[in-house]
Write a structure and sequence with these properties.
By secondary structure, the chain is an alpha/beta fold. It has one domain: Rossmann fold (3-Layer(aba) Sandwich). It is built from eight helices and five strands; from the N terminus they run E-H-E-H-E-H-H-E-H-H-E-H-H. The chain has a five-stranded parallel β-sheet, sandwiched between helices. Strand 1, helix 1 and strand 2 form a beta-alpha-beta unit. Helix 1 crosses helix 7.
């Protein structure tokens, strides 16, 4: 089965790539340089793709900074730091990039249909404390209908399937799954700040560190600060 994998280089997307390998997919990875603040992740995406032995790795470039609207695309908006898990769960944070997964899935759908792939893997997670609207099951279900109605394959009765294996998993469960799959955590990247060393205080770092700590494991990435420690 041929699959397109949305690969950011982060913990979740790297796990779904390795899951697709276990599912015996011919993996074609796609990453996005949208001029995000944390472009350091693209280095990780390249390394993870190479380690996993994907057939092809596409990097699509476009500029969302011209629109702003997110702390990840506008330097004038400060990144949230040192927030508790409770604080993270209360509102959609400023790190939400408007319609980002819709943009990503549109590119992935075009790529998938062009190479006659049967499915698109995406590492969205509805239980993540960030609560992004485009990481929830009803959104994925709606996009699946777009995939069916908006493509030749779909109209001919062979729609490209969106595979979201992490949708109902806690971060700790994702790490356990990744360990079972052999995901090289040391190659991944989650930090929003995008420095040479993960900051340890942004929401992404704190969620990641908290999950490793809860499991009694050590995250192999170096951190400037260890968040909840």
């Amino acid at each position: 089965m041929k699959a397109v994998i949305l690969l950011s280089g982060g913990l979740d997307s790297s796990t779904i790539l390795y899951q697709a390998k276990v599912d015996q997919c011919e993996c074609h990875a796609i990453s996005f340089d949208y001029q995000q603040r944390h472009r350091r992740e693209l280095q990780s995406a390249l390394l993870v793709a190479q380690q996993a032995g994907v057939v092809q790795h596409q990097v699509v470039s476009f500029d969302l900074r011209q629109w702003g609207g997110s702390a990840l695309t506008d330097d004038a908006i400060d990144l949230p730091q040192e927030r508790s898990l409770d604080e993270m769960s209360q509102n959609i944070p400023v790190t939400y990039v408007p319609a980002r997964n819709t943009i990503f899935l549109s590119f992935a759908l075009g790529y998938a249909e062009a190479i006659a792939a049967e499915c698109v893997y995406i590492g969205v997670n509805a239980l993540d404390y960030s609560g992004y609207p485009d990481c929830r099951l009803d959104y994925i279900q709606a996009m699946q209908e777009v995939f069916r109605l908006g493509t030749k394959q779909g109209r001919e009765g062979k729609p490209i399937t969106i595979v979201a294996p992490l949708i109902d998993l806690k971060k700790t469960e994702i790490i356990r799954l990744g360990n079972d799959l052999g995901v090289p955590w040391e190659l991944t990247w989650s930090c929003y700040a995008g420095g040479d060393v993960a900051c340890g205080v942004c929401d992404a770092c704190r969620l990641r560190l908290a999950a490793f700590t809860e499991l009694g494991l050590v995250d192999p990435l170096p951190y400037a600060s260890h968040g909840f420690d």
